[in-house]
Amino acid sequence: MGRAPCCDKATVKKGPWSPEEDVMLKNYIEEHGTGGNWIALPHKIGLKRCGKSCRLRWLNYLRPNIKHGDFTPEEDSIICSLYISIGSRWSIIAAQLPGRTDNDVKNYWNTKLKKRLLGRRKDRDAHHRQSAAATTSETSTENMNDAGERALSASAMERIQLCMQLQELQNPLGAAHHNPLVWPGCSRAATLSNNSFNSNRSTVTLAEQGQSISMNEHLMSTQLEGGAAMDGGLGSPSSAENSNVISMEAELEELLYGEGNRSGKAGAVDGGVQQGDVDWWSYDQGKSPVGCWDFAPEATNAVFQDYTSVYDI
DNA sequence: AATTCGATCAACCGCTTAACT
DNA sequence: AAGTTAAGCGGTTGATCGAAT
């Protein structure tokens, strides 16, 4: 037995909103507010719409100061960085972008940014394949991608792909997990020997390359950064780590806009947190606008479990 | 000019969470 | 403490439009 419907689907109107409906909803909310009850709202106005539909229409379209389209390079960078860090938590990501809605950010990511990033990756992989055709071993990335296609959830796979993409940029030899330039938290995470994640620590062995990557460490460190920021236990990073984050953002920009375009980008990262950039380390308890670094361990564990199930860790 | 295809985005669906009784 | 209800959220769908053939 399913959940009871929130409204009478037989009498409720569905589909695109007419300008008249928009005006009715907008006028009413501007005059009376929502009244804290979206379900009752359409009845008060005389709209044959579901309360959830009204709420969505208001939040995503009618609300004042909504911006549509024309995402700036700064916004691109923020979206990508946050997506890699926290995944598809669109409401949190959108909260960092004034005037943007979660739906907008989600659509923008799915239709443009993701393709831009992963597309570039594909191009480069193809290029790598060509240049490495003479060698018998494939790159670790390709192995992982092939395996990932088997079972890894799309979201987790995307995140791992993007993480690895950045790693490759920083360290083409593949030892990125030890390179704090990519993930400032990695080295720190490794020192937190008594944190709960260590009980699950595993290693992905890339035998052909004689290298190993601890994806657990990698993924967990990402959220350890957040957890540390939230509980104040580790405080702010060193200036060196701050510059590492900036370095990561710079790599994102390169992926998004390509070489040669970075200098022309307004507010380009060139050595400091500038206006329009995310002040990554300001999300402490008091200032965090939406608790954006409150990683749920189960969420990231799920990603990790996805990963371990694929690679038989 | 007609058709096909892919991209975009508004809107819906259903699950989770939080507030309330 | 348990049950109920609505809000919030992310995934998905489907209509629309423009480009390509």
UniProtKB/TrEMBL annotation:
Main location: nucleus
Domain of life: Eukaryota
Gene Ontology MF terms: DNA binding
Presence of the UniProt keyword Repeat in the record: yes
Signal peptide: none
Comp. bias intervals (Low complexity): 131-142
Keywords: DNA-binding, Nucleus, Repeat, Transcription, Transcription regulation
Domain HTH myb-type: 9-62, 63-117
Residue span, Myb-like domain: 9-62, 63-113
Compartments, as annotated in UniProt: Nucleus
Region Disordered: start-end pairs: 119-145
Name by which UniProt lists this protein: Transcription factor RAX2-like
PROSITE patterns: HTH_MYB (PS51294), MYB_LIKE (PS50090)
Listed GO CC annotations: nucleus
Organism: Panicum miliaceum (Proso millet)
